[in-house]
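Entry 12.
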Amino acid sequence: MSQYDDNPRCPYCGHIERDPWDHDWGSSECITTYCGECDREYVLTAHRSVTYSTMPGDDPATLDAFPIVEGAECPVCGGHVHETEAGERWCHKRHLVGVVAPKEIKR
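Predicted 3D structure (tokens):
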């Protein structure tokens, strides 16, 4: 029986492991480990997801085509923040400041 959770759950006793990255994963997605509660051996698999983000061009001036977010400041450099049509918020130094959920975007 497989179960997908944010933290590993022992398939025998249901114990939830809090520090899965303490294991020696090496380059593997799958390891054999022991439950910290019932001490039974089980196979632990890490499932990973990748997301991507894009923005226009290499020239910071291209951000000028997008509106400045009033009252927003880059937490890294303190610069002003622009919001792209996709709802991504960037500063001129290419720091991704955040992403606005589509329902929050006002155009």
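Annotation: The chain has two domains: 1-50, 60-104. The two ends are 47 Å apart (CA to CA).
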